[in-house]
Amino acid sequence: MTEPRKANNKGPEVSVVVPMYRESDHVSAVLSTIESNLQSSAESYEIIVIDDGSPDNTWEMICQYAASDKTVRGVRLSRNFGKEHAVSAGLDLARGSAVVVMDGDLQHPPELIPRMLECWRSNVADIVEGVKSHRGSESFLSRVFATTFYKILRNLSGFDLENASDFKLLDRRVVEAWRSLPERSLFFRGMTAWLGFRRVQLPFEVAERVGGRSRWSLFTLARLALTAFTSFSSALLQIVTVFGATFLVFSFFWGLYTLYVWYRHRAAEGFSTVILLQLLMGSLIMISLGIIGLYLARIYDEVKNRPRYLVADATRIAPEVNAQSASEL
Q1: Is-contact 88 111, C-beta < 8 A?
Q2: Residue 99: beta bridge partners?
Q3: In a domain, 25, yes or no
Q4: Can you give the pTM of this predicted structure?
Q5: Does the residue 81 lie in any domain?
Q6: Are 84 and 181 in contact (CB under 8 A)?
Q7: Is residue 225 included in any domain, yes or no?
Q8: Among 118, 207, 260, 288, which lies 20 to 30 A Cα-Cα from 45?
Q9: Between β-strands 311-314 and 72-77, what pairing exists: parallel, antiparallel or unpaired?
């Protein structure tokens, strides 16, 4: 029989990591809603808010809230590193026995946190995942893009992340395992899937944003998709090999046909076919070089060994965590 899980004595029972970017209009509403659910379900907690280099006054609003609430700690990154890196900063600073990662717009319902904690405390899972039962008021184009992305990723890497989200509770040992992954090109939900561990899924409906609008453009999503594809599978490189092998066979039979035409004294025919073949081959070569270039770019980013993020300012950081962060920066 599995014994109930107990919190350690080195920090709060639960840490909640909330990355924010241009969320100044509703910082207070988001944090107060999260906190109201923690007060009734957690023995002790902390909320770590990561300002991902917002150009508005998001940081000022975080500081104002943290000044009156000692359970809230704010961290401002030196520039906009992206959501994945902001989550990484939060995981580095979190001290809880369990760490919840959620968005800063209330599309991840804080009301689900008590159920997550119940699953975690019962020791049936090390990762409790929020899975979208309904994608909310998402545009048709975004739905098609997301469905296509997850199907391709599943076929390339074997990880089925359809309807997955970044709304997760991670046990402390999962957090430490995630932090041990050295890559700089980050895809949070894919990396947690790669880690394994015991997991359960809790469905939720994506709510309307509490304010503002989504900052995820199709270009940004496409860039994240390329990061996911190249970080979790080398299948694209294998496709280049398949291209080469296919055209090697095709070239052999086309060579036989060319000799036959020459033998029949009709070698002048087929000029347009040759042009089309050259265009096709040239396109495939450029596509293949582009795919190879994606992987070379990933290697280039990794070998530079730059930090995942830089902290420009913070409200309150625990001494032991601050020392650790300083050594990493």
Answers
A1: no
A2: 15, 170
A3: yes
A4: 0.71
A5: yes
A6: no
A7: no
A8: 207
A9: antiparallel
| Together in a domain, 24 and 108 | yes
Structural domain total, the chain: 2
pLDDT value, residue 139: 61
Q: Is the torsion defined by CA of 218, 223, 226, 231 positive or negative? A: negative
pLDDT in tens, 51-71: 988 888 889 889 888 888 888
Same domain, 42 and 139: yes
**CA geometry: angle 203, 105, 176, nearest 5 deg:** 65
Q: What is the pLDDT of residues 119-130, one digit of tens each?
A: 888 888 889 988
Sheet architecture: strand order including 72-77:
199-205, 127-134, 168-171, 98-101, 14-20, 45-51, 72-77, 311-314
What is the arithmetic mean of pLDDT over 281-286? 74
Sign of CA dihedral 140, 152, 285, 252: negative
Q: To 10 degrees, the CA torsion angle through 313, 314, 315, 321?
A: -150
Please give the residue range of the domain that contains residue 292.
235-304
Check whether residue 192 and residue 174 sit in a common domain: yes
In order of 10, 68, 204, the CA distances from 117 in angstroms are 18, 26, 15
CATH number at residue 192: 3.90.550.10
Does the residue 127 lie in any domain? yes
Is residue 138 predicted with pLDDT exceeding 70? no
Q: Are residues 299 and 319 in the same domain?
A: no
Q: How much of the chain exceeds pLDDT 90, in percent? A: 9
Question: Domain check: are 299 and 195 in the same one?
Answer: no
Residue 168 and residue 286 share a domain: no
HEC-encoded secondary structure of 52-95? CCCCCCHHHHHHHHHHHCCCEEEEEECCCCCHHHHHHHHHHHCC
Q: Which two tokens stand for residue 146?
A: 């997301």
Helix (H, G, I), strand (E, B) or coil at 270: coil
**Which pLDDT value is given to residue 50?**
92
Alpha helices in the chain (DSSP H): 27-39, 58-68, 83-93, 113-121, 140-157, 172-179, 188-195, 218-232, 235-263, 271-304, 319-328
